[in-house]
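#lab-general

N.A. 3:47 PM
ok so I finally got the sequence cleaned up, no stray characters, all 303 residues accounted for. can someone with queue access submit it? mine expired

B.Y. 3:52 PM
send it over

N.A. 3:53 PM
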Amino acid sequence: MSLTIKPILPRFGAELSGVDITRPLDEPARAAIIRAQNLYGVTVWRATGLTDESHIAFSRIFGHVELAPRLPGRLYRHAHRELFDASNLDADGNILQDEMLLLHKRGDRLWHTDSSFMDLRSAQSLLLCHEAPPAGGETWFADTRSAYEDLPQAMKERIEHLQVRHSLWWSRRRAGFPLSEEEIDARPHARHPLVHVHAGSGRKALYVAAHARDIVGLPREEGRALLAELIEFATQPQYVFNVSYRPGDMVIWDNLCSMHRGSDYDEVHQRRDMRRTTIREAAAPAVPDDPFTELFLASGRTP
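B.Y. 4:20 PM
back already:
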């Protein structure tokens, strides 16, 4: 079987089919999928038939699969540490009622880039639908490579060498989580270039979104205004599309050349069971590590 590619936008997004990704892949199939992912940034796979185990196994073609955090005293739905729970369900599979956890998850409805708040950045995210609400719950994607390329030259020169500080807690505060600026200042941040070269394609891309809190060397409000301007530019209609889900559908996006956000749905009455694996940009560590748990423990207060 050969890979079939159906582009969604001229420079961004494609639906892929024709390869059974529930089974081990030969090298030509692996290479074709990676090439398509690098070219389009976001790929959509329908009715995959993936289980938790085959979802994780397929993810490994892209690199080192990160581990979801495990915090003392908290129960988790999934036995596999590689699965990040992107659902509105508690450890028993019931719809969440904890308002603080719901507030934390609402940050995902802002345009964001997974894990930009980590020193070790994430590359691909692979989100598999197990249960979708009858309405809403789509994911929107934005093309940060094409947006960068279309910026006025004066703006490109202005932002070329800027560094941005990213904080998980900044995006959560913007979504309504009760944190002061001082509390966020005291928690871990990561620092990354605002513009970088996407290794898979050689194209430059913006690296911004909701975790981006301020710009190093600029007054805080000036930096935030610039970040907001760039996000608004990159989320114009010509750069975005959305994906709706049925059980078994999977979307893979490259966090290093895209932004995404979740859509609203009736989260207090309707179930949405989504599970994500995430690939670290860097190679596998020589010694097993757990940086997400370390981040939450270092923050001192968790949702």
